[in-house]
Specification:
By secondary structure, the chain is mainly alpha-helical. It has 18 helices and no strands. The longest helix has 31 residues. The two termini are 23 Å apart.
């Protein structure tokens, strides 16, 4: 916990160096509730920027005049940008003050969102989408900051609470963007998103503590060390692979839901597609419970429960095209709760595993985990669009079930002799 250099009170002015006694106090008590709220809000609003476009894809395609397949490149490039940003930018948190990095990324994210709002054509929107993905990685600077501030015995709970904010931001972003796009237009949504990130940037400038670097490696050496981190830690490789496989199905579902509901037999608008985010939010609310269970019973159990629940949920949704439209909607709602709960619980457990491997390399460990996850997200966005266009909704959910089942198989593989620092078996 020696990497913390500033006061952790959420109403503090820009942080100043503190005494060793104060640092010890932070290590003993962890972050204040106000600071946890700030971290959760910041992570949520940053991550939400990645998903505002998804319920609006039907409106976007009609407004810009492109096909359903081509509009699928918008979420794909956003997720790809996020994966690249995590790979190239997130490791900087081990080398520089995370507070400074968060503030710079917040400013750049605001600019990217405003560029998307002003985009006159699909190519410009695609560039803006890539930039949104790159800069929204400030969420992945916030989560390791929370892990650093938290006491070792409560790390799962604190990270789970911050991740609840992040996941609620992801899921409720769909509700908000669907409603705003239908009533005020998709450009208004991007402007509103820019304003929300601006507010978080100001609050972070006032409330975040400073963090000392965990390494003095150069940027080139820092990126090069990622390969060594991956090679040394089998637990990290398994976590990144399993979460990436789950992410394929997760992204395929959310990237195609609005287009599917826009077509026959539903003919529903973006607001209905966004409303499914409420069902998904029920899963996000369980994130602190998953973190607590990982602390008490070990994260391996949580990963198996989560991947198994996701597999069952997607498999059940495969039969939805055989039902009446009303029954389909009910099954989709129940399935959304199930797979979101499974994916989010598994992510919390994987973070508990990864953050316990090496505290001095948390940003790099986090980068590897989320690069795997968002490569899966980007793949799922375009694969889902192709599946829906050529074989229909049953192909989307069938593919999602298959990838989730593969993730479950990965989590049942035994690791050589890996243990997290909390002592829980992984």
């Amino acid at each position: 916990m020696s990497s913390i250099q500033g006061s952790h009170e959420s109403n503090a002015l820009p942080a100043m160096p503190v005494s060793p006694a104060q640092v010890a106090a932070i290590a003993s008590h962890g972050p204040s509730p106000g600071l946890v709220l700030l971290l959760a809000s910041g992570a949520g609003l940053a991550a939400a920027s990645l998903y505002y476009s998804q319920p609006m894809l039907g409106i976007l395609a009609a407004d810009i005049g492109v096909s359903d397949v081509n509009i699928g490149f918008v979420p794909m490039l956003t997720q790809l940008g996020y994966a690249l940003g995590i790979l190239l930018l997130a490791p900087l948190g081990d080398r520089h003050d995370r507070r400074t990095i968060i503030l710079i990324k917040a400013a750049l994210l605001v600019a990217a969102l405003l560029a998307a709002a002003a985009a006159p054509s699909l190519p410009v929107l695609l560039v803006a989408s890539l930039a949104i993905g790159l800069t929204a990685t400030l969420a992945q600077d916030i989560v390791p900051a929370a892990a650093t501030l938290a006491h070792e015995t409560r790390r799962g709970k604190v990270v789970g609470t911050v991740m609840t904010g992040l996941l609620m931001g992801i899921l409720l972003s769909r509700v908000v963007s669907g409603f705003v796009a239908e009533h005020f237009g998709w450009r208004t949504m991007f402007v509103a998103a820019a304003i929300s990130v601006s507010i978080i940037g100001v609050a972070s400038w006032r409330g975040l503590p400073r963090f000392s670097p965990g390494t003095t490696l150069s940027y080139r050496a820092l990126l090069g060390s990622l390969f060594g981190v991956v090679r040394r830690h089998a637990a990290l490789r398994h976590a990144a692979l399993a979460q990436g496989l789950l992410a394929v199905g997760f992204s395929a579902f959310w990237s195609t839901l609005a287009v599917m509901l826009h077509a026959e037999p539903f003919h529903m608008g973006s607001a209905v597609a966004g409303a499914f985010g409420i069902a998904g939010a029920a899963g996000a609310l369980a994130a602190p419970v998953a973190g607590h269970l990982a602390d008490r019973r070990g994260p391996q159990l949580v990963t198996r429960l989560g991947t198994g629940l996701s597999t069952l949920s997607f498999a059940a949704m495969c039969v939805s095209p055989l039902l009446t439209p009303t029954a389909q909607l009910w099954l989709l709602g129940i399935g959304t709760v199930g797979f979101d709960l499974g994916v989010q619980a598994t992510l919390i457990a994987h973070q508990t595993i990864v953050y316990g491997i090496d505290p001095e390399a948390r940003s790099r460990l986090n980068a590897v985990l989320f690069v795997g996850m968002f490569i899966g997200m980007a793949s799922g966005a375009i694969l889902g669009s192709l599946m829906l266009a050529h074989w229909g909704w049953i192909a989307v959910t069938g593919m999602s079930a298959a990838f989730s089942l593969t993730a479950l198989a990965v989590r049942f593989r035994r690791l050589p002799d890996a243990k997290v620092r909390t002592g829980a078996s992984i």
